[in-house]
Amino acid sequence: MTEKLDDERIQRVVEEYFLYVMLSHVWQGKEPSFQDVNLAGSVSQLDSSPLNEKLRQFCEVVRTEGYRWAWSDTCCIDKTISTVLNQSLTMMYKWYEAAASTFVLLEDVDSPSALGNLTGGKWMTRAWTAQELLAGKVIRFYDRNWKLYLGDTRSNHKESPEIMQELADAIGVARQTIISFNPDDLTVRARLRLASTRNATVEEDVAYSLIGMFRSDIRPHYGEGDAALGHLLEEIVARSGEVAVLSW
Question: Whole-model pTM above 0.90?
Fold first, then answer.
């Protein structure tokens, strides 16, 4: 006798199996690429350079925490194919939003960490990390030695009043907004003001890192320079119907 398939149970099992963790970090030099990992055969087979070791340790921490899948922007996007790269940039916010957790590596924070180290580090200055902080529903901060920030063993640091208050004071966004962020929670001016405090190595990333936070339809195209930000601002004005929103 064939039992009726339990679609909900199957879906639940599949979703649990494919839970993934995203890495949020600051790029440093030549990070391992999609091609590097493919050539080596696996992350574990990469040579012992410091940047390869960073990726390897991330994967080990993810596995230790009980997850099967780890994602890093350094090696999980084939950046030699422009269509893949451009689509990935437009999807980045949604990927962080859907992740089981985001692990943030604070590479300039020593052990033991102290309150203030997080917001005083380079991670807080980068364009892409703003959406990585806000989009993720679950987030954990680690120091350079992969020790939990402040020794806080919570599974979600968005449940830590101390850490969330440190972030709220630093970026001028309410603690509850950081915890359960929705792009509509912040005005256009507030989002642009937050973005203005960040910087990017590649000029276009100033705009591309805001695609998710503005639910933008602009299409990434590296090589357009400051026109990328112009296209984003033009879209924002067209949607709002007033130029005054740009006065942040």
Answer: yes
